[in-house]
């Protein structure tokens, strides 16, 4: 997947997480306002790729309804707010969230007390996660990916 497409997907996830989007045209218009040149058909493909569904007429990530299955409130916070997880080097991960969510997600990750995590630094929509080593990075990346699949 191209970097541009990945960035567009992150923007779409951010948009549906932060405001109600009722139609593909509405989502395409919101993307255009953010500087993205898209067509309704490309938005339609993106919706399919991202697995977005409509709940009560509003697009959202497919499994948000399954969040109740997650008992731990900190894991639930991660599942509901993580948009993407990217490895950076051998012992760091970069987590992406909707605007304003990174401090809460970083705090939830800290409260989980996973031994593989050395520490976190959270900005507005990005969190740097330092892990103990490359193996720990892989472990955390898998855990987070599993949580994102739940949401």
Helix and strand arrangement:
Blueprint: H1 3-18, H2 24-33, H3 40-50, E1 52-55, E2 58-61, H4 73-81, E3 84-87, E4 92-96, H5 102-112, E5 117-122, E6 126-131, H6 134-150
Antiparallel strand pairs: 1-2, 3-4, 4-6, 5-6
Helix pairs in contact: 2-3, 4-5, 4-6
Describe this structure in words.
There is one protein chain. The protein is built from six helices and six strands; from the N terminus they run αααββαββαββα. The protein has 151 residues and is an alpha+beta fold. It folds into two domains: 3-62, Arc Repressor Mutant, subunit A (Orthogonal Bundle), CATH 1.10.10.10; 71-150, Gyrase A, domain 2. The strands form two sheets. It has a four-stranded antiparallel sheet, covered by helices on one side. Strands 1-2 form a two-stranded antiparallel ribbon. The model has no long low-confidence stretch (mean pLDDT 88).
């Amino acid at each position: 997947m191209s970097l541009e497409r990945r960035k567009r997907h992150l923007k779409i996830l951010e948009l549906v997480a932060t405001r109600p989007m009722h139609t593909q045209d509405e989502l395409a218009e919101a993307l255009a306002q953010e500087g993205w040149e898209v067509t309704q058909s490309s938005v339609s493909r993106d919706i399919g790729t991202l697995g977005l569904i409509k709940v009560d007429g509003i697009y959202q990530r497919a499994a948000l309804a399954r969040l109740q299955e997650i008992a731990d409130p900190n894991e639930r916070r991660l599942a509901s707010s993580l948009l993407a997880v990217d490895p950076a080097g051998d012992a760091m991960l970069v987590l992406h969230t909707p605007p304003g969510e990174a401090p809460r997600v970083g705090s939830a990750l800290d409260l989980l007390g996973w031994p593989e995590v050395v520490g976190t630094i959270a900005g507005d929509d990005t969190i740097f996660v330092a892990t103990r080593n490359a193996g720990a990075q892989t472990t955390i990346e898998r855990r987070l990916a599993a949580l994102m699949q739940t949401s």
